[in-house]
Amino acid sequence: MRDGDAFCGLFACQKGDCDIWKQDKQPAGTKWTTDGTCGSAGGLRCSAEWGRCCNLNGVCGEKPADCYVERGCQDRFGICASNSKSVVSTSTVVSISTARGTVTLGTTRTSQVTTSSSTPTGPVFAPGNGSFKLLGCYREQDGGRAFQDQVADDAMTVEHCLAAAAGRVFAGIAYGRECWFGNSLHSPLTKVGDDNCMFLCPGNPLQYCGSGNHMVLYSTGGEPLMPSHPATVGGAAFHGCMTKATGAQALDGASAIRSDMTLEKYGEFCGPATKYFGGEYGQECYCGDSFNAGSVKAPITDCNMPCLGNGLELYRASDRLSVYARE
After folding, report:
1. Regarding predicted confidence, which is higher, 92 or 295?
2. Is residue 141 part of a domain?
């Protein structure tokens, strides 16, 4: 049997009477996790089966990124430790007997000096590199990805993502391990508070790597352009966002489905003689000279889905048609 920090400490001890287990601060009655999740969201505590430390992201583990309070360890739902030591001073009293009596000398010495890691004491939003600059935390639209190209890595870091995105305008890290990049948006992004992007990078737990549907965004240029309804397309003016007709499409002329559809291609397909043309679901084109019964204008915000062929152009979403009209 061996003892001491080398065998009983946080990252050395695996079984038995580990010193670190004695630091349990979890309230009595806290339920044990059954799937490795933990923390305030579900109120579950970590067990040895999953790793006794509850990390910032609410996942049990036993690595330094999971267990250090400086990196977000939740001590109410698992075991936590610190990566710094404190100064401990001790006093010694020495008595010396002489012919003239007893002289008492007091001395003080430091038995342990405060030390700290040369790395930051907590995760940060990495500033980028010579090409990419940090823009902040952005929320992706439900069901849509802002960029089409990606790499995923269980050892993802900001540096790894930006290297993979070399030559592109934008790079974003989401879910901790996913790196997405491209030159333009294929789905809208909305800037939000940084506290929405606090998953730790698995390859460097001192960096933040987004979260679910949220990405830490970097750019070689400026802020991303948001998709919009162009005022005119091929000589046609934006008419509005229309609902479907009663039991039918809003327009009953020719139609087509193309995965590379844009508003310009809608207009070309329908031809200059057709008064109205519009799109839905990013790839469906409809033409006609009048609207079928029951089709009425809807709020413009209902037509909020980007075209598959041009992520900066918006068209209709469910049961809506983004329409342009020729005079």
Report:
1. 295
2. yes
Helix (H, G, I), strand (E, B) or coil at 208: strand
Compute the Cα dihedral for 190, 192, 195, 201 and give only its sign. positive
CB 292 within 8 A of CB 268: no
Structure tokens at 33: 């996790």
Whether residue 152 sits in one domain with residue 208: yes
Cα distance between residue 24 and residue 255, in whole Å: 66
Specify if 247 maps to a domain: yes
- Is 274 a member of any domain? yes
Rounded-to-integer distance, Cα 246 and Cα 244, Å? 7
Q: Does pTM top 0.70 for this prediction?
A: no
State the total domains in the chain.
3
**Domain region containing 67:** 20-83
pLDDT tens for 9-36 read: 454 454 444 555 445 556 667 888 999 9
- 68 class by beta-carbon count within 10 Å (0-12 exposed, 13-18 middle, 19+ buried): buried
Q: Contact 112/100 with Cβ under 8 angstroms?
A: no
Q: Which residues pair with 322 in a beta bridge?
A: 241, 279
